[in-house]
Amino acid sequence: MSVIRQRKIRLKRRGIIIGMVLFIVAIISLSSILYFNSRAEPDGEDRQEYKEEITIKDEMQAKPIKNLLREEIAADLRLHYYNNIKLSDKISIGDYIDIRISYENGMDFIVLPKKRVIDVSISNNNLESCIWLEVSEEEILRMSSAFVDLYHYERSVIYAVKYLNEAQNIAKANYPVNDEVRKLIDSDPNIINKGIHLKESIYRKVIDKLDHMSDALVEDTATWGEGSHTTNANDYDEDIVYLD
């Protein structure tokens, strides 16, 4: 074989090798361009759709982690909304609150202790304000009893009190439900944990007396001024004790 022919064969082989290398480089470059173009954020009307798709993917990836971190959910836990609760504008989603009820005689009770605010809409009108909470079957019945009291007793108020820090200890519910709700709580098979409330019956009797107190006040105001007489020094002839 002549030297010239050998050179031609070597050059031909080199050309084939160089061509294959260039072809592979071109394929890799084209694949890279297509990949990065598919990852780029679209413009115009597709931008919002792209963001929503990315958000959904992120949420799907985060769900297993959230489920691992969250405590086991009780079987009777439900998501419930309430209105006609006095809410401060300082309360926002994620805060922890106590739901309380206050009566005209100054008595004040905790109905639901340390509930996390799932969602909230606050208005100057309590009827228009709305709050979403996770509540158990027993807590639903307790709130029902509290709303009955709210509508029955004048100047009673259901309101929310915010915890300063999530790490604060949970308060104890001490609101005495009415007798009918107490019977429901004791007999309801859906209630998993039935609380023991020894003082509820005593407190309930005090609340139920508010009706009689209101009637007595009406009678007293109706007789004001009757049998009045001119006061003199003898009317105040009593010992006065001063407290240190």
Topology:
Blueprint (H helix, E strand, L loop, with lengths): L2 H37 L6 H24 L8 E6 L12 E7 L5 E14 L8 E6 L1 H16 L4 E6 L16 H9 L12 H9 L1 H13 L22
Antiparallel strand pairs: 1-4, 2-3, 2-5, 3-4
Explain what this protein looks like in three dimensions.
This protein has a domain at 78-214. The longest helix has 37 residues, at 3-39. The protein is of the alpha+beta class and 244 residues long. It has helices spanning 3-39, 46-69, 137-152, 179-187, 200-208, 210-222, and strands spanning 78-83, 96-102, 108-121, 130-135, 157-162. It starts with a helix and ends in a 22-residue tail after the last helix.
Keywords:
disordered C terminus, alpha+beta, 6 helices, single chain
Sum this structure up briefly:
This protein has six helices and five strands; from the N terminus they run H-H-E-E-E-E-H-E-H-H-H. With 244 residues, it is α+β, with helices and mostly antiparallel strands. A five-stranded antiparallel sheet has the order 1-4-3-2-5.
| Total beta-strand segments | 5
Please state roughly what percent of the residues sit in beta strands, choosing from under 5%, 5-15%, 15-25%, 25-35%, 35-45% or over 45%.
15-25%
- Report mean pLDDT, rounded to a whole number: 75
Structural class: alpha+beta
Q: How would you name the oligomeric state of the polypeptide chains in this document?
A: single chain
Shape: rod-shaped
How is the biggest beta sheet arranged?
5 strands, antiparallel
Q: Strands of the largest sheet, in order across it? A: 1-4-3-2-5
Order of helix and strand elements from N to C terminus: HHEEEEHEHHH
Radius of gyration over alpha carbons? 37 Å
Spans of at least 5 consecutive residues with low confidence: 216-244
Distance between the termini: 130 Å
Q: Percent range for helical residues?
A: 40-55%
Tally of DSSP helical segments: 6
